[in-house]
Amino acid sequence: MIEALIDGERRGGVLADLAIGRMRAAGKLADLSMALTGRFTEHHALLCRLHQDRIAGFDAAVAGLDERIAGKAARWQREAGLLTSVPGFGDVVAQAWLGEIGPAPHRHFATHEKLACWVTLCPGNNISARKRKHGRTGDAGTYIKPMLIQAAWKAIRVRGRLQARYNRLVRRFGGDKNPGAKKKAIIAIAHTLLKIAYQVLKSGTPYTDLGADFYTRRESPEQKQAWLERQLQKLHPGCTITISISPPEAALPPALNHQSLFQPAPEPPPTPHPGISARDNQRHPLALPPLRPRFAAARPRGPGFRVRLSGRIPAGRGHPVNHHVAGATIAPRGPR
What we know:
Elements: H1 2-7, H2 12-16, H3 26-35, H4 42-72, H5 77-84, H6 91-100, H7 112-119, E1 126-128, E2 131-134, H8 144-155, H9 161-173, H10 179-203, H11 214-218, H12 221-235, E3 240-245, H13 258-261, H14 278-283, E4 305-311, E5 323-325, E6 328-332
Parallel strand pairs: 4-6
Antiparallel strand pairs: 1-2, 3-4, 5-6
Helix pairs in contact: 5-6, 6-8, 7-10, 8-10, 9-10
């Protein structure tokens, strides 16, 4: 369209026909034709030609530099292939690594921690009088550090271990709504990419992703149970938790199925109002809202279990003190 405007075309309908892709929709062509109908003089065409020539010159210069860099990096084709196996690493990032750090970083840096310190992708340490002032990274790594950060933004878009680590770090640093948490997490992912690239070049084997469930598989059942107990303590402070393991459903007698395990306790009769006579209470009983469980009763799979919480739990007016919620029995502790 810009080239047609420069060549002298001013009709909006003709210019709209030059649209490509989604702009050729029926509803958009009419709006585009109206937008292209206006005042466009020869002076505007001259300015557009100057800008187009400058853009074409820059594109030619970039293409020439890319060709020269590719020729320089051709001797390390094997190392470049290893680097491109890392998530987020493309040809540009791999060539920047080879130009800044080299094909064998383990020959110059004994560990990846020292390499991260040289690139300044590690937290700063500014402590005075037992006060930590800040933990910002340094100013070194002027060329390779921006490349690694851009590679980190690309790596977290792919479902895998790096995306799972990014999500965990964001939750730990403040949540999705905190922009600072995302920036801190992306710096940590760039640090992880640097360590992965260091180990890939040192071992000579391509990178293999550990999977999006890497951190879930790494947790032991004891750690998961302890985490669930802490969550229950937050929901019901001051309660004691007792977990009893029951046999699987197949091993239970036919009379004891999963419905009997998760059967809610019967509700007591409505509480009579103290200011109304017994006859009126029988005619117009006090209607109380039913107690709705917070969790839906799920079908047990594998070995079943029951969780009993006991403690001082305030009961609502007219609600039963003891009730069952999805296999968890909540009862108040006796008087001390």
